[in-house]
Amino acid sequence: MTGRSGGSRRVPRLLGRPVPLSQVAWLTLVWLLLWGDLSVGNVLGGLLGGLLVVWLLPLPVVDTGVRIHPVAAAAFLVVFAADLVLSSFRVAFWALRLGTLPPVEIVEVRLRTSSEVMTVFITVALSALPGSLVLEVHPVERALVLHMLGITGDVPAVVQADVTRLESRILAAFGTRSDQEELR
After folding, report:
1. Which residues contact 119 (CB under 8 A, 6 or more apart)?
2. Is 54 left (phi over 0), alpha (psi -120 to 50) or beta?
3. Average pLDDT for consecutive 10-residue bins of the chain (184 residues)?
4. What is the distance between the alpha carbons of residues 76 and 173, in angstroms, rounded to a whole number?
5. Of 166, 61, 48, whose CA–CA distance to 112 is shortest?
6. Distance set, CA 175 to CA 121, 148, 182 (Å)
7. How far apart are CA 35 and CA 45, in angstroms?
8. Dihedral of CA 78/180/111/139: which sign?
9. At CA 155, angle to CA 149 and CA 161, rounded to 5?
10. What's 57's DSSP letter?
11. How far is the C-alpha of 2 from the C-alpha of 10, rounded, in Å?
């Protein structure tokens, strides 16, 4: 017997409906945390409630397209942490320069990926960096409109290069094989 995704993973069934045990366990844990008391009655009530919820309200099987590649993910996190520190110093530098307005630019950058999930990852990462904010996302055109603070020089080229490097690191860390092949 296979699950709805057609994979080889077995999902137990109750009266013909699949019952994912991981979801039952998760709902039981939430139930116990809400009650704040570990007792046999609460565990049984959580199991029964979780079983009832997943049986009555089945969720569709969704493949988000996210794959974690541990070495690339660790490299991404290290570089992203460094980017956070550098961006924080850049914003602090401009904030402490009294009487001088920082350079502010609205820049449109192109993404190479067509994956919506990877575009969300990139958008979140860019918005988390101090001094940058994603204003608009154009998925059909594979473009982001960014508000950038404190960048000097050829701003569009600098920002495009930074976003392309970030996109490559995210796809290497979390993308599927087809996401990664899209960059080649």
Report:
1. 111, 113, 137, 139, 142, 144
2. alpha
3. 48 75 88 90 91 82 81 97 95 88 94 92 96 95 94 91 96 86 71
4. 7
5. 166
6. 10, 26, 10
7. 11
8. negative
9. 105
10. S
11. 5
pTM: 0.69
Query: Quick one: tokens of 124?
Result: 């979140």
Rounded to the nearest 5 percent, the helix, strand and coil shares of the chain are 55, 15, 35
d(CA 12, CA 23): 12
Three state DSSP letters for 25-76: HHHHHHHHHHHCCCCHHHHHHHHHHHHHHHHHCCCCCCCCCCCCCHHHHHHH
CA angle 136, 140, 143 (to 5 degrees): 45
Domain boundaries, the chain: 13-56, 70-182
Three-state DSSP class for 52?
Answer: helix
The candidate with the shortest Cα–Cα distance to 116, out of 159, 164, 63, is 63
Among all chains, which residue has been given the structure tokens 């409630």? Answer: 49
Torsion sign (Cα): 9, 15, 17, 22: negative
What pLDDT shows up at residue 5? 43
Residue-by-residue DSSP string for 147-165: EEES--SSHHHHHHHHHHH
